[in-house]
Write a structure and sequence with these properties.
Layout (H helix, E strand, L loop, with lengths): L2 E3 L21 H12 L6 E3 L3 E3 L2 E2 L4 E6 L2 E23 L7 E15 L5 E7 H15 L5 E3 L8 E4 L1
Parallel strand pairs: 7-10
Antiparallel strand pairs: 1-3, 2-5, 3-4, 5-6, 6-7, 7-8, 9-10
Length: about 160
């Protein structure tokens, strides 16, 4: 299996099944996806639809995420509730090479998902993990994070998510 990041293209929306573990890919393929994510430089998460496998975009509802230095797969993720106020964060993205983005993220979210073992979870996610969740979930939801180059510098590489 050959995986490749699809650069500079908005990720399309994925339909997320309700609390079911339905994937057309084998366990072996999912483990290889996690391994591919782990090899990306300074990567904390990677959505399936950011990647092609053997030339075809992966149109499935999962993402790999690094939690406490361990990679896991989040299958059929849902953000059930956003809590508190948003905080401005600077993020990079493997899709938008060489760009930094200023984004507003909630510091706490309530989520549910299925892990690679098929266990269903519902929990509160906070801090950096919540930030990664929102970033990867937006990829799966096909949310267009419009980038607007900052105006105060001519060659600025920081973009604002609107």
């Amino acid at each position: 299996m050959k995986f490749k990041i699809i650069p500079n293209e908005q990720t399309p929306k994925i339909e997320i099944p309700h609390n079911t573990l339905i994937l057309d890919y084998s366990y072996k393929m999912l483990i290889k996806f996690i391994s591919f994510a782990r090899r990306q430089h300074k990567c904390a998460g990677l959505a399936a639809n950011q990647v092609s496998c053997n030339g075809d975009r992966i149109m499935k509802a999962f993402f790999a995420i690094k939690i406490n230095n361990v990679w896991d797969l989040i299958i059929n993720p849902k953000i059930l509730k956003y809590s508190g106020k948003k905080e401005i964060k600077i993020e990079k993205c493997l899709t938008w090479i060489g760009k930094e983005m200023q984004v507003a993220r909630y510091l706490e979210i309530q989520v549910n998902y299925i892990n690679l073992k098929g266990d269903l979870f519902e929990k509160i996610v906070t801090g950096f993990q919540a930030q990664i969740w929102q970033h990867e979930y937006n990829h799966l939801m096909g949310i267009v994070e419009v980038m607007k180059q900052c105006l105060h510098k001519k060659n600025c590489n920081i973009f604002m998510i609107l």
